[in-house]
Amino acid sequence: MSKKLTFQEIILTLQEFWSKQGANLMQAYDNEVGTGTMSPYTFLRANGPEPWHATYVQPSRRPADGRYGENPNRLFLCLETL
């Protein structure tokens, strides 16, 4: 039976893979953005003429989605790997 990877090991494996492909390893932009595509790494560089290859794990904080309801499992933070 194969070893189960932890969340950190999965992220590290993905970063190593994309680094070998020539992508820039970026740190997360921790702000209330909703989705990783609103990160400055993605949004601002997409407008330039040069190709841009970046990888980062983006926390997606959406307090407006998590403030209502009585379910204790209703979270307003998820992680996206871009």
Automatic annotation (TrEMBL):
<dbReference type="GO" id="GO:0016740">
    <property type="term" value="F:transferase activity"/>
</dbReference>
<keyword id="KW-0067">ATP-binding</keyword>
<dbReference type="GO" id="GO:0005524">
    <property type="term" value="F:ATP binding"/>
</dbReference>
<comment type="similarity">
    <text>Belongs to the class-II aminoacyl-tRNA synthetase family.</text>
</comment>
<keyword id="KW-0030">Aminoacyl-tRNA synthetase</keyword>
<keyword id="KW-0436">Ligase</keyword>
<dbReference type="GO" id="GO:0005829">
    <property type="term" value="C:cytosol"/>
</dbReference>
<keyword id="KW-0648">Protein biosynthesis</keyword>
<dbReference type="InterPro" id="IPR045864">
    <property type="entry name" value="aa-tRNA-synth_II/BPL/LPL"/>
</dbReference>
<dbReference type="GO" id="GO:0140096">
    <property type="term" value="F:catalytic activity, acting on a protein"/>
</dbReference>
<dbReference type="GO" id="GO:0004820">
    <property type="term" value="F:glycine-tRNA ligase activity"/>
</dbReference>
<keyword id="KW-0547">Nucleotide-binding</keyword>
<protein>
    <recommendedName>
        <fullName>glycine--tRNA ligase</fullName>
        <ecNumber>6.1.1.14</ecNumber>
    </recommendedName>
</protein>
<dbReference type="InterPro" id="IPR002310">
    <property type="entry name" value="Gly-tRNA_ligase_asu"/>
</dbReference>
<dbReference type="InterPro" id="IPR006194">
    <property type="entry name" value="Gly-tRNA-synth_heterodimer"/>
</dbReference>
<dbReference type="Pfam" id="PF02091">
    <property type="entry name" value="tRNA-synt_2e"/>
</dbReference>
<dbReference type="GO" id="GO:0006426">
    <property type="term" value="P:glycyl-tRNA aminoacylation"/>
</dbReference>
